[in-house]
Amino acid sequence: MKIALVGGGTAGHIIPSISVIEKIQEIDPKTEFFFVAADQELDKKNLESFKVKYFLPIAKLRRYFDIKNFTDIFVLLNSVYKSIKILKKEQPDLIFSKGGFIAVPFCIAAKILRIPIIMHESDSSIGLANKIIMPLAKQVWLSHPSSINKRYLSKTYVLNLPILNSLISPRSNFKHSEYINPEKRNILILGGSLGAEYLNDVIYEHREELKHHFNVIHVIGMKNFSEKYQKENSYIPLDYIKDLGPVYEITDLCLSRAGAGTLAELDSLRIPAVLVPLTKAGSRGDQLLNAEYFIEKNANSNILLESYLDSKSLLDHLLKLPNRSSKHSPKNQDKVSEKIYALFKEASSKAK
């Protein structure tokens, strides 16, 4: 079986696909695969260790009027053409699409060539790219039952994707331990792979208050990192961490946005969290729904809305979090891995 994995734009559209192929190859080591992602620095960094990969220009799909909506039609058509060439060269048995704008032209090309598509949506609401891909797909996978579309019920499966093996069993130790005070709890602050400017500003401004209680590991994001962020005792700013395994290993609690990929990792690793979801003004509202769903499953976590985010509310919410329990006992992923493999085989066999 040969699988094309497509998705990009953020780490959340790529990392889950890497975890899927890890699990598939554990079951069937003969499985072949290749990646298709966006032609941008973050995607290239996340896929640098893989031999077979392709990067396509992004034609962004906007929900508002913009002159680029017209010029991007030509970018989209060009990406469809390039995708057809890739598919004819590689001849995969099926496509696994994790979404993002880059997945649209590739899935259109796959449909033209009659290659079966499996799409997965991690968020509580379905993104625009996946809404376009959904009618093209042979199987629709959803993490949240609330996002089921009755029109596609017969081909819909509700399942969460596994997380990376390196997050469960880290391959190295945390590199900046000289800044860690062993008498304090370790808090990991995540704003997503692209960063969260407002959240970063609040953390940086109040880092002294946070340092009084915690060792602060602050992942800024590649877009927002600058020279003003300097390491000091109990405060460790980092631009982006490709392998979060060593960091999660020492993390006692987390302050994070509510991207579906991050929440899946926190849930699997049983890490208590304060979630600061993007507002509807900054997103389609999916992060708020993600956060509410996460809190229902994890009573040891809570939500802090951005409009109430200040030093007092931040510390109040963080200090209420319990210590992380079962630190080295992540949730078992064997059953979901077997389910994914069975669905892949079903989709690829029906296409023959």
Can you put this structure into words, describing what you see?
- This protein is α/β, with parallel strands linked by helices and 352 residues long.
- The chain has two domains: 2-162 and 333-350, 3-Layer(aba) Sandwich (Rossmann fold), CATH 3.40.50.2000; 167-320, Glycogen Phosphorylase B (Rossmann fold).
- It is built from 13 helices and 13 strands.
- The chain has helices spanning 15-27, 41-46, 68-90, 103-112, 128-133, 165-168, 197-205, 207-213, 245-250, 260-269, 286-297, 311-320, 334-350, and strands at residues 2-6, 32-38, 53-56, 94-97, 117-121, 139-142, 156-158, 185-190, 214-219, 235-238, 253-256, 273-275, 302-303.
- α10 links the parallel β11 (253-256) and β12.
- The model has no long low-confidence stretch (mean pLDDT 89).
